Amino acid sequence: MRGFVAGALGLALLGGCVSGDGGSGFGDRASALPPSLAYRLTQSLTTEVGPRLAGTPREAAARDWAVRTLKDLKFGRVAVEPFTIKGWAREREEAFIVSHGDQALAVTALGGSISTPKAGITAPIAFVASYDDLLLAPPDAYAGKIVFINDRMKAARDGSGYGVAVRKRSRGAIEAAKRGALAVAIRSVGTDNTRFPHTGNMNYDAAVKRIPAAAVSNADADQLERLHAMGVPMRLKLVLKTRAIADAPSGNVVADIVGVEKPDEIVLLAAHLDSWDLGTGAVDDATGVAIVVAAALKAAGPEMKPKRTIRVVLYGAEEVGVHGGDAYAKAHAGEIANHVLATEADFGTGRVWRFASKALEADLPFFDSVAAGLRDLGVERGDNKSGGGADIAALAKKGVPIVGLSQDGTTYFDYHHTANDTLDKVDAAALEQNVEVYARVARAFANR
Ligand SMILES: [Zn+2]
In this structure, are 288 and 417 located in the same domain? Predict the structure, then answer.
């Protein structure tokens, strides 16, 4: 049946305007019009492939989807560039406040976490108000306990709350283990107030004992906070079963609309193909995939003859350590100097509101003129300090010029890395504004 579904949606994909216009223009009228190419791509990836955790057969299915789709859309060169990663999968995740009637908490294992023993870990909770407080605690402060870290993430248009909040996810297990903890649980790194816990990658340190790590949904974290405020000691039972997968296959999908005048010069549009396993990865990052594919076609025009090559790279294994970004920079080391621009879409579906850059001083007037051409779309000129995004960071470090287009991320972290990241969260009108912005930028650099 999968073949039939794929075929039907594949036809639907091509039913519209292949040039990327989708026939719908953009703006608030879009909802009354037929779905655009970008929306249909988002729907197709999240429906036909669904969750696509790095290193699993579902990520491989996403690569197959991308190759098929990009060929159908008449990209000139479409290739998979494979690499392998250390894979990981979750199998079981449960937690109970055993001191208070065995209340079940909505929890999820953090990506990369080891398992608990089969019967779980049952221990007193050490309630730690923030990651900074954890860092101040002396060695052995939490011996024999499960550390719970309670920082809240603040919502912001530029997503600036994430950098601070994510520290407890990436390093909480290391810092808690250094202080004797048996396991760590964190308030979800997310801005919702639901029972959907947020997963995401976590790290171990070879010099520190590995302990299991989980995220608790924000609503359940509130419950722990209230019990803690009552001053009663709590005991938690945490059961995690996860699996490490050696040499798991991943890969980048690279597709070119070959330039007619300077085919060796490359305008690179980036997004990532993998997602976390809990939801269907709609806002992270199917919309990014859809934006860059539709924008590349729109920039190339109906003739598909840009001056320079417009390259779409759909990266693998971003979520589990940005392996695709590193693999691309390595595989293309010889042509990095040929990249005239790299830009990335990996922040959901909110409207673009700022154009930042990382360009040489002498080239700033051109970047300024491109930014000025986006004013009617509500985009302001930002600074010249853009890092671009995770997957193109390796290129930025090597001096590739960068445009960083800030999408409105006010609600992005309500769904990010949860089972609730599904197609219904996609704002079709905002998606079209993104396509138009990315297309204008790509066209300006490709035809400069
Ligand atoms: Zn992402």
Answer: yes
